[in-house]
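Morning run. Coffee first, then this:
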Amino acid sequence: MSKNWQPATQLVHGGTLRSQFGEVSESIFLTQGFVYETSAAAEARFKGEDDGFIYARYGSPTNDMFEKRMCMLEGAEDARATASGMAAISAAILCQLKAGDHIVAARALFGSCRYIVETLAPKYGIGCTLVDGRDLANWEAAIRPNTKVMFLESPTNPTLEIVDIAGVAKLAKQIGAKLVVDNVFATPLFQKPLELGADVVCYSATKHIDGQGRSLGGVILSSKEWIDENLHDYFRHTGPAMSPFNAWLLLKGLETMPLRVRQQTENASRVADFLAEHKAVARVIYPGRADHPQADIIAKQMTGGSTLICFELKGGKEAAFAMQDALDIITISNNLGDAKSLITHPATTTHKNLTDEARAELGISPGTVRLSLGIEDGGDLLGDLEQALSKVKA
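And here it is:
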């Protein structure tokens, strides 16, 4: 397979493995195990002398195609597909740590990601320090002699803050730590963390990669050396494996991802500009606008805006609920990256388990709303928001 293909070509043809029947669409290999022609062949397979498949928990031809296609897109040497995005995050972080180690993580994280580093890891003797990730000085000040992992997402969920990935990667390399980046909001089309110095990149494939609300999935990408030394055995023995059927769905999703993300981003840009001028809206945060507080970093590390918008309504929770409930096209759901436009109220959904103080630190107010734009007609979406906002009391 040519690695010089453009992403749109990679996402249609990358990693394709055809059976003896020569099918056009990738096959789904729904099997738990694989057979060997001889006992010696089985022995060679288990010794690693033969690259064939052993057991579906370890990998399958369908999963292998998905992993290879993602590697081509991301520019990674190796990957492992997981059952969900959180399976990817937890495995990527925990597989390389032991009791006594320390994590430095940006405080602006999806609620479940904060649980992994802030609650779960300390139960096993792994320390964690959360920092305001926007300032590199905070990362540097939090480093300890036992810091082994740095973890961030950028843009962040839900307030679309930006972290200087190259800057954090430089700090991590200085102390021999590994930087893990959750790149789901940017997508691999708009941001390449490995090129910026990150060691490991994770995705919830449930989002833009599937993009059609059908399946859960995740993927971890890194160097072959890191995966062999850290993730390989952890993955095999703890079992966060992706279903081959889901891998097939995600392969189909990858084929259309550039088309979907382009339309979603165009819609997001139009909607962000509309919301910024609306009297009921207190503020709009969108990485594609010049007024984003970290527009300088965005220009350095992202090649596109985002499919998501964060905005705050002046009337707080009452206004947010009234607006959401009045929408006709845009649907209330805590998912994102879907072909359908989706909206959620973070304070009562994705980030409800944080304290009021923690939400305030992240800029999540009672009036904060996260909007994931779909591929619908942009004019229809603007009309839907306009009529819904008219229901909000001034």
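The chain has a mean pLDDT of 95. Good start to the day.
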